[in-house]
Design the sequence.
């Protein structure tokens, strides 16, 4: 018996990755609004779970490129032949090449608020620009991956194309045997194409950067591995950072626990702090945190094991580079962030810092007793801002009455604080 599949019809734009041809497409801040796991109503900055899977060989594909084959998908047999079939069988997770795909989704997960789940089932519906099945758990994935002949493997040829959300399906050109079967650096060519194409699948357009290398540049590049700093920033614009997953950290009750402070500096968000060097992002770097818009807040929890003269420092970070015609696009000047220090109850304000201006650092200095404290980070602009937060200090013995004074200061600050999100 054929299971009913929810189908939506729309004219869906897609993006092509070329081997050498350099084109630029700007499509705005597209993202998933509905997925099989999360349902409908998703918006900018919302953490999102996306299911992905493969269509069966023979699944029909409507051509989207001039000269593209009308044959059905042959991706599984292509990967088996050129990357290895292992023991074979119906469980594709046992294939040697499965981990190459899984690695890409894991990488995007690690640097954004996206989560991914492999869906082994598929509805058999045609891959098409106008008709696509809605993802359904246990039935069909949100993102379906297929492949067949598109336009050969020489010249400025197409390596793959991908539809935008809420479509997201990917078609790989199986003509490019030598490119995709190259096992150098754990199939870097295949991985960078997959990571690029799914960048479109999550809503990222091509980006034109003349003085930096980014994954979402239109032409394939094998001088780096996976998403780079602009790619990560654009992902966090749409889905927030990794801390937004599993309920997020928008209130003190679900604050990100930074552990026990014992005199050794705590520092987070360091991987986005590139300065002017615009260093290559290593595939093992995951410490990219941000406030993704004007309504997002982060709560951080820190426990002191004694009395310390503390300094809490908040710095806006990120390099400056050319970006779609803007020759001084600065990731460190996207939003004006503020910082508030709360006592262990999560409501009593002990201090705040709200210096005005893009890129301006914030700092709170205070002698604190042993115990748990919460730091709140919040933004004033509807833009995504990478930040670095540090907690440092040295042992101190407060003079008599100083803690009473801190309490009075907290009461004063509550009265004057213009905005505290809870």
Sequence:
């Amino acid at each position: 018996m054929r299971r009913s599949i929810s189908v939506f019809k729309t004219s869906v734009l897609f993006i092509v990755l070329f081997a050498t041809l350099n084109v630029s497409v700007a499509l705005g801040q597209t993202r998933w609004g509905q997925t099989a796991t999360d349902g409908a109503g998703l918006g900018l900055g919302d953490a999102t779970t996306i299911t992905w899977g493969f269509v069966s060989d023979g699944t029909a594909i409507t051509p989207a490129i001039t000269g593209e084959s009308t044959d059905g998908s042959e991706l599984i047999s292509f990967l088996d032949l050129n990357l290895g079939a292992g023991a074979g069988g119906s469980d594709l997770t046992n294939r040697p090449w499965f981990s190459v795909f899984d690695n890409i989704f894991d990488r995007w997960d690690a640097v954004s608020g996206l989560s991914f789940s492999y869906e082994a089932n598929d509805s058999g519906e045609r891959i098409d620009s106008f008709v696509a099945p809605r993802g359904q758990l246990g039935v069909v994935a949100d993102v379906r991956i297929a492949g067949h002949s598109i336009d050969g493997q020489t010249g400025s040829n197409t390596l793959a194309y991908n539809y935008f959300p809420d479509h997201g399906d990917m078609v790989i050109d199986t003509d490019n045997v030598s490119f995709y079967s190259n096992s150098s650096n754990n199939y870097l060519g295949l991985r960078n194409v997959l990571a690029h194409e799914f960048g479109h699948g999550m809503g990222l357009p091509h980006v034109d950067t003349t003085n930096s290398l980014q994954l979402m540049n239109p032409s394939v590049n094998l001088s780096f591995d996976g998403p780079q700093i602009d790619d990560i920033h654009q992902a966090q614009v749409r889905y927030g950072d990794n801390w937004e997953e599993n309920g997020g950290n928008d209130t003190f009750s679900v604050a990100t626990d930074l552990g026990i402070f014992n005199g050794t500096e705590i520092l987070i968000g360091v991987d986005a702090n590139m300065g002017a060097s615009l260093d290559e992002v290593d595939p093992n770097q995951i410490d990219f945190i941000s406030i993704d818009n004007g309504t997002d807040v982060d709560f951080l929890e820190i426990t002191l094991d004694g009395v310390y003269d503390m300094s809490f420092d908040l710095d806006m970070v990120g390099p400056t580079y050319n970006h779609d015609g803007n020759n001084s696009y600065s990731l460190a000047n996207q939003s004006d962030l503020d910082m508030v220090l709360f006592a262990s109850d999560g409501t009593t304000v002990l201090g705040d810092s709200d210096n005005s201006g893009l890129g301006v650092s914030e700092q709170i200095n205070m002698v604190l007793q042993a115990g748990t404290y919460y730091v709140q980070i919040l933004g004033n602009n509807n833009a995504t801002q990478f930040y670095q937060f540090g907690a440092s200090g040295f042992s101190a013995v407060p003079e008599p009455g100083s803690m009473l004074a801190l309490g009075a200061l907290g009461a004063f600050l509550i009265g004057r604080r213009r905005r505290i999100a809870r």
Residues 249-416 form a domain with the Jelly Rolls fold (CATH 2.60.120.380). The helical segments are 75-83, 98-110, 177-180, 184-201, 229-239, 402-416. DSSP finds six helices and 20 strands in the chain. The mean pLDDT is 88.
